[in-house]
Amino acid sequence: MKTPKDIVFNEQVELILPNNEIRLGNVISMDENITTIQVYEGTNGISLDATKTVLKGKPISIKLSEKMLGRIFDGVGRPIDGLGEVISDIERDINRSSINPVSREYPRNYIETGISTIDGLMTLIRGQKLPIFSGSGINHNELANRIITNSNIGNNEKFAICFGLMGAEFETAEYFKNSLKENGTLSKVVMFQNLSNDPSIERILTPKVTLTCAEYLAFELGYHVLVILTDMTAYAESLREVSTLKGEIPSRKGYPGYLYSDLASIYERAGMIKGKEGSITEIPILTMPNDDISHPIPDLTGYITEGQIVLSRDLYQKGIIPPIDILNSLSRLMKDGIGEKYTRKDHSKISDQIFASYSKAQDVRALAKVLGENDLDELDRKYLDFANEFEEKFINQSLDERRNINETLDLALKILNILPKEELNKL
Amino acid sequence: MELKKISKINGPVIIATGEDDFAMHDLVYIGKNNLMGEVIKLEGKSATIQCYEDTSGMKIGEEVKSSGGPLELSLGPGMIGQVYDGIQRPLNELERINGAFIPKGIITNSLDENKKWHFVPNLKIEDQVEYNFILGTVKETESITHKIMYSNSKKGKIIEIVPEGDYSINEIIAKIQTEDGKIINATMVQKWPVRVQRPYKERLQANIPLLTGQRVIDSIFPISKGGTATIPGGFGTGKTMLQHQLAKWCDADIIVYIGCGERGNEMTQVLEDFPKLTDPRTGRPLMERTILIANTSNMPVAARETSIYTGITIAEYYRDMGYQVAIMADSTSRWAEALREISGRLEEMPAEEGFPSYLPSRLSEFYGRAGRTLNNNGTEGSVTIIGAVSPQGSDFSEPVTQNTRRFVHVFWGLDRDLAYSRHYPAINWMISYSEYISALEDWYDKNAQEDFLEYRGKIVKLLNEENELQEIAKVVGQDVLSDSKKLILQTTKCIREGFLQQNANSEIDTYVPLLKQYKMMKIIIDIYEYSNKLIDNGIPMSKIKTIGFFDEYPKIKNEVANIEMAKIDELSELYISKLEKIEEEYKEFDEKGWK
Predict the structure, then answer these.
(1) ∠ at Cα A261 (B192, A259), nearest 5°?
(2) How would you classify residue B117: left for phi > 0, otherwise alpha for psi between -120 and 50, otherwise beta?
(3) E strands of B52-182, at which residues?
(4) CA A200 to CA A223: how far, in whole Å?
(5) Model ipTM value
(6) Is the pTM of this model over 0.80?
(7) Any chain B CB within 8 A of the CB of A11?
(8) For residue B436, is pLDDT > 60?
(9) B51, B92, B243, B297: which to substitute to probe chain A, counting the most A Cβ within 10 Å?
(10) Alpha helices in A158-292 (DSSP H)
């Protein structure tokens, strides 16, 4: 469109169609004559002459209230559960400026998820961003759901979940909705859903809207907020779509050169702030295209987030759930959130030993493939036993089994004892 | 003259058109909010500007004013212990003004203008001064004496200088009459354009090591003061952890830590850890020698591009005072990506993987600013650059890693497999190298032990042999190897676990002085050589194993504290005597039994 006088960069625009339908957009580039508007709900039915545009005079923002808990919204924050608009005087720009690094508080307090692999080997810390790297067909939603249900936050503290679904299939959205209802957590959840048949361009706003809501709950109302964003791959693909439409020069695999900065602007909104009660813990979930961890989306994500939980197709096919590939997974904030003060004194030694021994066992497995198991020496065979036992007893955990941290660590010690003492040099 | 006005906005890139005359790299103030930006391209009447702040809310037609010069840093006392953003705005000050979120369009002073510093003059009236001559000193922290330097390029003589006393940075402390008769008022602060290298008198050979207390670095792949090193590694390989270790323990006087496009929580960790830790040499908090530049991944991209230059210019300023400065840049890949992002917005023709074609020249320019120098004021200083690289998909053949490799002399390649088995620091000894060994030979001979490098050579040789043996063992199994080969594998396992691995979280192991490193190398090599001799004489490996040394060695690093390192010599004697006993037994056996 032609550039009107008062338009500002990144401003929110409403397009009024001839049939009085309203669509949202925002200004993505402008010069003296032409302004480019990106329309979030697709351009279907927009005619050149009959469409009116209304400039809102401000960047896109949403209304916020504590009453949003238990509600369901679409990907741009409009209610879709039939309970009416959110009434509030509080309105926030969805693009928040970044947290000043000196104002951050270093996350220390751990969250017990009840899942042995996570608690024992990649402990989740409040204020952390820990993504789940999955592949299509691996049931990562089940893991996410388990984390939500089992996570233990002290009783006196306010806990909420902000849920952003991007490009989700209807079934996925329903699955989450139903299981949250069943275990009674829905009243603690704010859900933003952009389904796979919603305009893909709207997806770009969903994580920002979700996080804006989370920030309000965490830093203004003192909640501990767990933000789950799924699927980040769908988000990145939308970003690529828009970038191509804008005619930008593509970088790796057609994704725009600013993918890193853009993802960072989402992930870095997690954290804790000095002097504020609440915290934002982010668990973005992404499916690795073709299970390729070096694909730009998981790769750049891994550089920004504080570790990753990688799911393995091999384990999944062996029937081990949750199929967490521990050697590829890591929690960077773990070292400061475990030990005597938080979990148990021997925690870090046990986890170091597990990693070292399990990685050695993988070498033995490779060797066994070549030589056959019978030709292995006794020590190597013990390693094989260890690895199998570890996968079946420790990683594998049935859906209704919740292990607390002591149980997890004791179990790890028990399994480590399969190996001779000389091999346990980290304990 | 009519001011330039905004005619196009595309993310952080803005085009301003109008009569006003801009120069390249001028600092400009954009729009009614006075956001800072830099001119990066000029064409006819229009100027392309990269804006250091978020451009949301800007309008076409808003005015753009030039500051009349490039972005300049304020260099003076008070920088140490500060946390700056990429364009030297103090983040503590921004927090005071706007709380926990970074505001837009705020111009603050980089240095505290009110604080009084105790100035002690170094020169007197009638003294001749040249560029960088030291006018006087100020005690900036307990361990750092800040030297106030004459910053004009023209020679002159002092016509007035204040007596010892307390002054703030903007007070005139000296007047200098230059050769052409001009009078220059000197204060304690000097301005310097951020992208311009500070001059020195002479470049010196980089032949003194920068000791880090990390065994795999000091003993195996050392770096010189004034040298350049790179740490490439995919995510999860421990780059940042290693950078933190170096910043904590290396024996530089000043550390400039640039957090360039990395995680916010990592900067917080530095801010929490450093004030608590003490410098092993001075006993003072580490923060008293550290300057942090934090431009986290979610902060504006143009300021990220500049943060590298801000860091190195500050480092050069302290070098000019005669200090040994080390820069940790984490990560240079994010900086390269900032270049790519801006280049893309400028619609420049991309070269490899979308990076601009000037990437190699920018990298070489940056690493070229490292060095040990003789300064104009007679002091000797150095700037060491240690840059982390985050290769996409851990692929070392990508452009940033490859180009960096061309311009640095030390390569500490981090390895994912090592990191997965929790071998930290995950420096892969097969791909890493240091080109400074020969330059440092003299130093090690004189200041460490004469046979230090000899032991180093033996360790490296064993590790190489192990690599080949592992290949063979993979095919035929370890059992069929001869005893002398088994001994090598046993020894190198000890070297890997007991020497190369170092636990940053262990109080005893996090920092190890060079002498202890030497003792640790010596004991394993001595035992190996003795054992090897015994094996040559027909004593089986199984017998040698019974002395228990190979189980004991990996524990030394955690059990023998730095102050009691003489224990290692005792251990050495103990195990050697055990080996001697075995030798005796077999000799007797030989004499009695066989003959």
Answers:
(1) 135
(2) beta
(3) 63-70, 72-75, 83-84, 117-121, 128-129, 134-139, 145-149, 156-161, 165-167, 174-178
(4) 31
(5) 0.81
(6) yes
(7) yes
(8) yes
(9) B297
(10) 170-182, 206-215, 232-245, 259-267
